[in-house]
Structures are given as C-alpha cells and as structure tokens.
Amino acid sequence: MNEPEEFSQEDLIRIALESVSTREQAVDLINGKFADAYLTKIILDLEAKRTVSIMITSILKSSILKVYCLSGFNTGLKKIAIYEQTEVMIQDMLKALKEGGQDKSLADRVGRTLFRAFTNESLANAHQALDIGKPDVLEAGIRKAIVAETKVQNFNLEIISEKISSLYFRVNNPFEGVLPEIVSPFAVQAQGSNTGFMKSVSASLTSTEIAINDLLTNYATIIKCSTVISPMGGIDMDFLREGNLILFKLPFKTQDEKAIARKLDGVDEKGFPKPIVGKFKKMIIGPKNEYHIFAEGPKGVLLRSLEERKIRVATPKNNSAQRKFEDDSNTSKSFMYVLIGFVIFVIVIGIFFLVN
C-alpha cells in the first residue's frame, strides 16, 4: 500500500488500532498483509425513497468503524445497483449527491439504525457467517433493526459484503469532505471539553464478550474456522481439556484464505484443503448456549470456531504425540512379556531340578 504523504507512520498505526488489537497487527495492516474489515454495500427501498449505505466493520474487534448513508428520491440513487463494483457505487453515490433531492434526516435515521443493529457478539457471528459465504445473518440483523425502528414490515433490502483493508479505505476516503459519516448513537459529546471531539461510548459488554476479548488480546493473528466433527469418535466437547489436540478446517474460498491455508499447512500435495491440528485452549459458552472453541494453531495463530450445539470434536489419528504414546506403550508391553517369559523359564528350571 502506498502511504499518503500527509500521514506519518504513527498516524497510520493510530488509525489501524481502531480496527486491530496490537501494534504488530497494525504494522501488518499498513504493509497490506491482511484484510481486517468487511465493507458492506446496502440498498434500502422504504416508502418510495431509496437509501444507499456503505458500512465498514472491524473483523477483529467486531465493531462498526464507519457508516455513510445517502437517502432520497432522485434518479441517480434509483439507478444504483447492489452488484456494482464498490468503486463504481461510491462514484454513483457522489454523483447522486450533486443532483440534490436528498433526505438527510432519513439517511441519519437509517445510519443510526445500522449502529444499533448489532452487539459485538452478534456482529462477530455475522462476520463468521460471511467468512463461509452466508450473508443472511448480517441481512437478518439489519432487517430486524429497520423493522424495530420504522414499524414497517414490507421493504426491499439488498446487501453485499467484501473484505477490505479499513486502513486503505480510510486514508483514501472518497467521502472525505463531501458526504459526512453517520455519527454513532453510542457517541456523546465529551463533557468538559473545548475541542468538540466525540468520545465513543460502547454498549456494555456481556460476560461472554469480555471473556472472548481477554483471550483474543493475547494473539496477533486470529483465524475463524470450522471444527472437524467426528460423530463416532473424537472427544465429546464436555471432556475437552487444555492441551488436547483437535482438528479444524480453514476457510478456503478467496485467494487470501488459500494463501493462509498454505502457510499453516492446511493444503495437501494436490492443492486441496486438509484439516490442521490445534491445541485446545478454552471453550466459552455464549448467552444462546452457543459454544466458542479456541485452540492454538500452527505458527502461534489462534483458531476460533463456533458451534450451535454440542458435538464430538475430531482428533488427529497419526500425530507425533500419539505415535510416541503408542511407541512407549508397545515398549512397556514388550518388556512385560519378556519379564513374564523369564519368570516362567526360572520356574520351569526350578521344577526340573526339584524333580531330579
């Protein structure tokens, strides 16, 4: 990524840390090593007016970073299609802005509704669904929030999400100075301040979110993946203990996901995905009785999976620890057999001499 001249390295790190957890992650983000956010394009047709929105959400922090909305009834807005490339959609939004006929109060209302649509936990679940190509969780959250805000049941809602670098978007922000971002309803004017800066006030975290965040802060890289299920074998979730070796499936759709899988030895010699081994760290039960499973994977990454019900987790059949256990066991058995044979031999010799 080419760094704009007006941003120093410390400026970039400060901006990056709004989306990532550690300075090391911030540096990697500056160097373009991973995508830290989802950009979601949203089209809402409600009561003869159209609202086109861009929402940027942090994957690691499960939070909304930026929301831009444009509402009205002009021709430019009506022509915008959800399947346009992001750059094209943004340019079309800016063209529609110049046409006039906007409804700023509706744009603000829709934007604030997007902020209220998700808690940290529900947004994390939506991100995990997006990771496997399922946008319905995110869409359902937005739809539910709009119904609650407007009391209208029938409206058209379309969304498409893509992974991006939030840092790249923000330092090259096409809306800067043209279309103001929507201010979060959870932000209040800092009391006693003459600067007019806004201080963010996050909604209170649940005990589940606190426990998860405490664990995430210890790792520079967190990968959302799927637990390998073994109905006839493996380990029952209730009996998982720290240090148990269990299997995970890495996401394997985008080029970035395939590159990460290769780095973590999650690809076989034919180029197909294969399970990787993680060392179980912790399981956290959520408010809906969902199970958040965490394990340390190759190269010190944290593997994270979500299960909606109890399962039996698959374990590696031919790992070095298992082989060592089997070798030690076989050695012990061989020694015991030799010892028993020696004892029998001594007894037989003794009986022979007594008879004679």
Structure overview:
- The chain has 356 residues and is α+β, with helices and mostly antiparallel strands.
- It contains 11 helices and 14 strands.
- The chain has helices spanning 9-16, 23-30, 75-79, 86-99, 104-116, 120-131, 136-150, 166-171, 207-216, 255-263, 320-355, and strands at residues 37-46, 49-58, 63-72, 156-164, 187-189, 198-200, 222-224, 226-227, 235-236, 245-249, 276-285, 291-296, 302-307, 312-313.
- The strands form 4 sheets. The protein has a 6-stranded mixed beta sheet. The protein has a 4-stranded antiparallel beta sheet with strand order 3-2-1-4, sandwiched between helices. A two-stranded antiparallel sheet has the order 5-6.
- Helix 1 (9-16) packs across helix 2 (23-30) and helix 6 (120-131) runs antiparallel to helix 7 (136-150).
- The radius of gyration is 28 Å and the shape is elongated.
- The termini are far apart.
